[in-house]
Write a structure and sequence with these properties.
4 copies of one chain form a homotetramer.
Chain A: E1 3-4, H1 6-10, E2 15-18, E3 25-26, E4 29-30, H2 34-44, E5 48-52, H3 59-69, E6 79-81, H4 82-93, E7 98-102, H5 109-112, E8 117-120, E9 132-137, H6 145-158, E10 163-165, E11 171-173, E12 179-181, H7 183-194, E13 199-200, H8 206-219, E14 227-231, H9 234-244, E15 247-251, H10 261-268, E16 274-276
Helix pairs in contact in A: 6-7
């Protein structure tokens, strides 16, 4: 597959979904000249949504973070997070009682936004376990993995309550050469111990794409063929976009380097419609 | 969890999704008195959709089959199959060329309906392999598992083309005591051999629920809290319904017997909102 | 399968392998009257070996612990641990350099016994990473899961060095109703993140059985048909014993209760030759 | 890792284990000049054993096959197959009754050699199911995958009998560019359907290495450090050899090509002690 210019690809579509990490920014800050790319999209007038596997903070805080990094003009209402899908679950299916969460206090905003009461897993004990109505994995920080994952295992063995994984990613880059275990990796440990499949949100699952699609259709009528998904990760962005029936472009500014793109595509069988160096070029 | 009367549960909702196998019919034919249950739903005036993990034949043929069994009044347009999701994929993402399928000639209707040319995997060989643009797993019958699964493995090793699993179920009952390996089981063998995840459709995936939800909203405005999903299988009907954010009821006329319901719920952590003996009682 | 008297079963064999946890002791201390059972085995004159998935401390410390609990007469030389298998690996395949370990200082005895230099994973950093020649998972305690598992992931991504799991158990009981995640569970998280299979020791793997079998044959000639394996866990003690070709007895004093024995045997397809209430009865 | 001359590596050891497929022969026949390599080993006087994941025929027939291909001097007693491990299981743990097998008539020799009565899975039906005392997966040929795998699934759901996988390989090459699904792949389908782990024999499992080690020690005393395992496959030959504590050499005449050796070693974390082009060079 030959690399194409992003703008030439974009010109065939009427709306665009962008992954955040690896497409707009990375561990070192903004992708160079990404403001130019966003400005170009704005000039076309096509709607844009950022689809990010992130439940560590609200769209509001994520938008503020773009701003702090120096990227102008991404509105909170344009950001769709996997945490929002978990919030939707809690709104639709949430029971009374406290919702235990694994994450930082910022991440617990998703529970507060569902009008439920969050309690950090580090505060859960034998005495208050019976009050918990659900467990949500929101972030890899904010708790003690050893102590609190054991609490989670015992809570879920004793009480029939749902467990929700608000971000299925298993790793994330923290520097050029280092990664860290992400929320989905932590949740996977507990799932393996219990022999269960929790309720997972985040790409490649269809739910975030659907949410974005519904938002676009409130603006005006869009078909799936009108939409381009841009991502740096084959098994989330590209697999999810393909499955949802929209076009997909793999960019080489994140998880998938130019050298390994063809090898990874062949090995995984996950095939993007296009490959572009970045959303800038 | 106490067993409730189905009609008392139904009365709290404005629309209903029914699984087919294990809810409306089973290996022996129709569930006793199921016509009464369907008639009751009709009397309430609420819209009904049948959501079935089936890609072996079209909604038209499935509706005819209900009729032959003696159940009146299920329209083809009320039946949503996982095969339809595969068809949608082919419509949105299908490339020119032939689509190889694993299934019977009836199942290939889903490819024809996408205006693409089906070719049975049993007809694929070294000479025509290069013409194939996608592989679709539609049914467990209609091909030779030994010879044709080996063809499938080699086709997907050599060509970068997508593989779609139009029914993720791994077994289905064929008599009171016997089961058969289903399409998802067969596809799983090929996925394990290749070390890949194919594109899967069918419950518990959100796509079918979303499709049904969009159909309902063309009639009039429905919220997720208005909808009840009825199924006999925890890890497809109930997990999928819960994840999509609608209410769920487990019935005991199929895969989950009265004796094992509580044990399975505890073991899997998949928790229905209600348990009912059947949609009749 | 009917429950039998342990002594009547034992009388058919010439040597016995006992699991420790769930057979000789449990979270509350010694199994009641277990001294009587050990005394009976001693009276028969048949050799006994304790086969335990444990790499947290040496056979010497484990024997002292039996003594502290009040059980007399188990010699260190009669205890075979999965940690000893990891030590054998290091003796046979160990390279110069430091061996990073996840565990307590006690567990690092297995590395010292192989004449290699242990370094706690908590002391590994960018500056000394290049000195590490292997990683060994020995215990679930003695390090910070969050920080140090991330170190482990990055170490194994950057350097081509072997990773050894000296205890494959995923959970262990800590009280009547609570469990804790064990070494094998922690290692499994890292394996999933990296997409690798580490080198695992411990039942059901054949290596410990072979080690015990070789020890017996240094006393006098034994055939496999002469040996009885006693355990409380189907997928370690019984599966491993069956695979090694020796007879197996499931006791109901640990992981498998009387109520669930038949259900678990049916579900797993792991079938002991006998079931006994305990080694006392 | 630099490629070394095989003979220079061999000169450091006192005994050698060779994989068959990919080391001595491949789909096209013998590896060029392999007779020369075997002659060289014979000249050193060191004992040689062929360790092969094969249960399709007896060591006698495999030795005859080497002879037919033109390779002289491999004795049946020097060939250790995974089928022999399954036979050992049946000898040690076999119950009265018929043993159902998936494979050709040749493969059933392993059951006959255990003095048990084989019955092809294709002959098993509702009427004689109760007579079956075990199921053995021996080969990928000799039965109808669709019909007979469904029989196997139902047999194992209804009766508590052990299932043994006599060859865990999931694929094997049938030509330069084509592979076929092997016994372990077929068994894996049934294991996934049933949610069980069968009893598996064959590399990387320790049992075959142990069997070869015991044979060598009947000749004279060998330590593990004296033995070299030669194989073309990382996750069977090399992982198994490493785990058993013997030295390992990867050759590039089979599953692992020169181009991909380093990439695969890095990806899997399975690290051979040496890499050689072939056993000839």
């Amino acid at each position: 597959m030959r690399t194409k210019s992003f703008n030439s690809v974009l010109s065939k579509y009427k709306a665009v979904f962008l992954d955040s990490y690896g497409v707009i920014k990375n561990h070192a800050g903004l992708i160079p000249d990404v403001q130019k790319a966003i400005n170009h999209i704005r000039l076309t007038g096509m709607p844009l949504r950022v689809l990010t596997n992130d439940a560590s903070r609200s769209p509001l805080l994520l938008a503020e973070n773009f701003d702090k990094l120096g990227l102008r003009g991404i509105k909170p209402s344009e950001i769709i997070t996997s945490g929002m899908m978990a919030k939707e679950y809690l709104v639709n299916k949430g029971k009374k009682g406290k919702v235990a969460y694994l994450g930082t206090n910022n991440s617990a905003d998703y529970i507060r936004d569902a009008d439920l009461e969050p309690i950090s897993i580090s505060k859960v004990n034998e005495a208050n376990m019976h009050e918990i109505s659900a467990v949500v994995f929101l972030d890899d920080e904010g708790y003690d993995w050893n102590k609190d994952l054991n609490t989670t295992v015992n809570l879920l063995r004793k009480y029939q309550i749902p467990a929700i994984v608000a971000n299925s990613d298993v790793i994330y880059p923290v520097s050029k050469n280092n990664v860290a275990i992400a929320t989905g990796g932590v949740a996977g440990l507990v799932e393996n111990i219990l022999g269960r499949d929790f309720i997972h949100y985040g790409k490649p699952d269809s739910q975030m794409f659907m949410y974005g699609f519904e938002q676009l259709n409130k603006i005006r009528k869009f078909n799936r063929k009108d939409i381009l998904m841009v991502g740096d990760t084959l098994h989330t962005d590209i697999l999810g976009g393909n499955k949802f029936g929209i076009s997909t472009v793999l960019v080489l500014t994140g998880n998938t380097s130019a050298e390994e793109a063809q090898i990874k595509i062949k090995a995984t069988g996950v095939i993007p419609d296009y490959i572009c160096k970045s959303i800038v070029e």
